[in-house]
Amino acid sequence: NGAETFYEALVFLKILIYTLRLSAMAHITIGRFDRYMEKYFEADLKRGVSEEELFELIEEFFVSINFDSDTYQGVQLGDNGQSLVLGGCDQNGEYKFTKLSRMCMEASIELNIIDPKINLRVDKHTPDELYILGTKLTKRGLGFPQYCNDEVVIPALVKFGYPLEAARDYTVAACWEFV
Fold first, then answer.
1. Confidence of residue 22 (pLDDT cuts 50, 70, 90)
2. Is 56 helix (H, G, I), strand (E, B) or coil?
3. Confidence (pLDDT) at 79
């Protein structure tokens, strides 16, 4: 019947990730997590689920996918090549940085684990709050967040033949490739 709650959507996403791992997929991008999970997150808030409960679910999800595998055994425990993208504009060009985006950043800062790696989409509309959170995360020494400049990437994708709406909805594959 499909997910109705944030928890159900996280469980389904975890099953998808695990299925890919069983199929020998090493580097998995979780994509624009704050975009596609937003409707479940907001619906739960409207149902009365507290922000604290939702934050705990985000942290539990991050921990669960962090320890799926160890791609670079003996190098960095928990580095399994998973990344997600936060912020950036939507298909209409409107900048989006939501409560869920912020909570994902805060969860990564608090957990201090290597995956999922955070990629931040930024442009001239990026709020200072995002750069402050990004700086706090950088200070953790995990090697991220990585910053993706929408003002450069989107026109480049259009130049390569992508429709504008698709270019605005780009994500980052595993390490850094724009898709």
1. confident
2. helix
3. 62
